[in-house]
Amino acid sequence: MSKVAAPTAPKNAARGSRVKKFLADNGALVGLFVLGLALFIATPDFLTGPNLLNIGIQASVIAVMAFGLTFVIVAAGIDLSVGSVAALSAMGSAWIFSQADLPGWLAVVGGLLIGALSGAVSGFAVAYGRLPSFIATLAMLSVTRGLTLVLSEGRPIATAPEVSFLGGDLGVIPMPIVVLVVAGIVAAVILNFTVMGRYMYAVGGNTEAARLSGVPVRKVLVTVFALSGLFAALAGLLLSGRLDSAQPQAAVGYELDAIAAVVIGGASLAGGVGRISGTLVGALVLVVIRNGLNLLNVSSFWQQVVIGMVIAVAVGIDSLRRKNAPH
Amino acid sequence: MKFTYPRKAAVLTVSLALAFSATACNRGGDEAAEGSASATLALSTLNNPFFVELRDGAEAAAEEAGIDLEVVDAQNDSATQTNQLATAASSGTDGVIINPVDSDAAAASVAPLIENDIPVVAVDRAVNGAEIESLVSSDNVAGGRQAADALAAAMGEEGQVIVLQGVAGTSASRDRGAGFAEGIAEYPNIEVVAMQTANFDRAEALNVATNLLQANPDVTGIFAENDEMALGAIQALGERAGTEVSVVGFDGTEEGLAAIEAGTMAATIAQQPAELGKRAVEVLDQLLAGETVEETIPVPVTTVNSENVGEFTE
Asked: Do A54 and B48 count as a contact with CB atoms less than 8 A apart?
């Protein structure tokens, strides 16, 4: 009896656990698929080519911002300044072009540098000043938003044509989607195929162990925040490209969307876990919810309720998985 | 705690010094006030061109009237505004012009001012449930009706309309929305097919309008409760703006007027923010001189379209 049963049981169990593992690893993707299916049934406007492109465009700003944030969260930090850094980078870039009358390419490079520099300053404060990243980036949030208002004097500024190009079209493909894909590939390569990427996981997994094994923890921290700032800057340029101007109040509250995207995508705020592909899916989930509820003409108040519940469920699943993990 | 004599003496000296400097400060303040009155302009935000223009108008009028005007920005946070008004009251301001973050919450924060007989004038937004001296504001309900007329005219009095609403709960959004609903109801061939909030924000309006246009491809008119959202909708429409779809905004900001000149926006209902600021300061000046003023002072709004836009852009 046991001879017959023995070989089949482990096989079933193995298959079962493989399905379970897939679901656990790709919970957000499955969620996105279910969400898409529900909206496809609910409204004929959802699954159309133009609407799918819309979703891609609308996800681009948050996703690019969240890619950078993924590095920080993998390294067990948090960056609350990404929205404000995006706004400052966009405003700085527009200022370089409109007020300082410098060429458009310099406006793009300058904008990106402002972001990377803001991030690096946060990184130094965390790595060498021993500030908790929550505090360092909260301070940076305030400083960068303030500087944005100083630069703009509270008014929108026209942006460089090179930046507007980022919000336009490349033939039939919208540029924001091109930027989204390129930024995603670059971020994934950094995280998965470079030594620095390995270090990020090591620092996030166990900082002390990483330090003892010779990982240059401080350099890693400065790098992750600088990268976060750089990606935030790119997101800011993308947003101002879409709006054809840099807005003083641009991207207010986007840091929460970006954090939500990373967390829905399966990264752990405890560090050491997270993937760029997951973050992309997380951003898409947020945008699809908003898009779908707009199409159904549901009030934006309910959208906030729904998004809140999705975040709670995503993190709940994540912590259950961690608890049940075999190792 | 036990003090030694020298320490006691030190404490006493410091306290006395503080007390003297405090009275000296007060006297100095009073003397300064004789020459020119001081007033506080408490704005909900300076994060918006509209309020920047309002401030500029107020500052110009204050200079003319010889009022020393201090401008504080609450950054859209009611609690911050409450603190700022408390500071203003204790720093001996002679009068306050408030642009409430929240009309209901502002009542509590102006109460201490009223108790101390400091005159309070509200500008642009009302203070609910407090005995303030005067409200200087645009007639938003009338403006909403004017917007409906302008949009109907641009659409040939027929078709489908999307409404982009402002921050829920603000009187500006409520009044403009009510006026628009009233006005548009008079055109039987126009149907409002969707209403969503985009929180007075351009980026949000871009996304929301894009989404709504997916669900309602036959729309030929969009009313946005401010110009920022109208500009977002125009961005969402692309080449269809001004040709297939008429957009009407509200506020008459610089960029809104530029969009009318460019032909992408059909009309905007221009408030005159600088005029609002100017009138508010003038009213406060009258109050400080002991005159009585009207409880509500309406500042006219005007429909700006391609025909008269030249008069507003100089």
From this structure: no
